[in-house]
């Protein structure tokens, strides 16, 4: 159920996907553009991008379990689980495929895996400063790591510390990873989402499984090919990292684009990692290009 609020109702609707209630927001009409956010992020990251996309397609964005307004899921996130969640969300709201998948940061793992596993449902992919871990290896003791992540998150929830800590972490992330320095979404819903007792547990859980999923993707690459669909990689060239770190990151982004026969990497010099907040116009232009080529 949607949380009680004195402000206007949250946008979107709620659907049950594989036993978990997920928050989904839809805008526009036409070919389906399926949008998925980075680690510990939510639907409102795209609030300034969606108005530029809605005239060109049906934009479907959702919150993964425990994030935004979605209910938690007791099962740990995996590459294959998140990949299947993408299609399940689209099917639950009746959005027809094939899909153009737009993915930021960590969600890039899921978008690439989806294209490789379901080429018949993939019209194109746009990776927005996507995570790239070319030497990732699964970490030991996954059950213990997961239990610890959940215990830490639960402690914040039970003590009430999640209410100040979650929004504070969000503010730090936006200031550190966006040149714009202020959030894209409604301040009240941003605060409420990050102050929820669910958020920190979901964030710690995604973080502790991050390299495991990256390693799963490397194994998947060994036995599949990227389909012959347009791929656009938008790389943030305007972050605050040292030049050497930035150069390595941009090399990884170009390598991602080279994985696809129709891949292209565009460096956005005036944007940091939260590129959709800094340059929603660049994201929208990339999606429109992919829709035109699909």
Automatic annotation (TrEMBL):
Domain spans labelled AB hydrolase-1: 37-286
Pfam families: Abhydrolase_6
Protein name per Swiss-Prot or TrEMBL: Alpha/beta hydrolase
SUPFAM superfamilies: alpha/beta-Hydrolases (SSF53474)
InterPro entries: AB_hydrolase_1, AB_hydrolase_fold, AB_hydrolase_sf
Keyword Hydrolase in annotation: yes
Keyword ATP-binding carried by entry: no
Domain of life: Bacteria
GO molecular function: hydrolase activity
Keywords of the record: Hydrolase
